C-alpha cells in the first residue's frame, strides 16, 4: 500500500485517466473528489463488503431451503 500525505487542493493521479483531489479536511473526515472515466466503477469499500456479506447470507439461505426441499422429497419416496 502506498501511503501519501496531502493537503487541501493537492491531487493524486492514477494512470492517465484518474485524478483524486483533496477537497477538504476537518477533524474526523477527509473529503475527496474523484475524476475518472465513466467506465471506471468507483465504490465505497464498506458498501462492497456489505453487499458481499448479504450475498453470502442469501446464498446460504437458498442452499438450506433447497436441501430441506430435497430432504422432504426423499422422505416421500417409497
Automatic annotation (TrEMBL):
Entry-linked InterPro entries: CsrA, CsrA_sf
Pfam families the UniProt entry points to: CsrA
Residue runs in coiled coils: none
SUPFAM superfamilies: CsrA-like
Gene Ontology annotations for the cellular component aspect, listed alphabetically: cytosol
Keyword hit for Nucleotide-binding: no
Superkingdom, taxonomy of origin: Bacteria
GO molecular function: mRNA 5'-UTR binding
Cellular compartments annotated: Cytoplasm
Keywords of this entry: Bacterial flagellum biogenesis, Cytoplasm, Repressor, RNA-binding, Translation regulation
GO biological process, one term: regulation of bacterial-type flagellum assembly
Subunit: Homodimer; the beta-strands of each monomer intercalate to form a hydrophobic core, while the alpha-helices form wings that extend away from the core.
Its job: A translational regulator that binds mRNA to regulate translation initiation and/or mRNA stability. Usually binds in the 5'-UTR at or near the Shine-Dalgarno sequence preventing ribosome-binding, thus repressing translation. Its main target seems to be the major flagellin gene, while its function is anatagonized by FliW.
PANTHER family attached to this UniProt entry: CARBON STORAGE REGULATOR
Family label: Belongs to the CsrA/RsmA family.
Protein name: Translational regulator CsrA
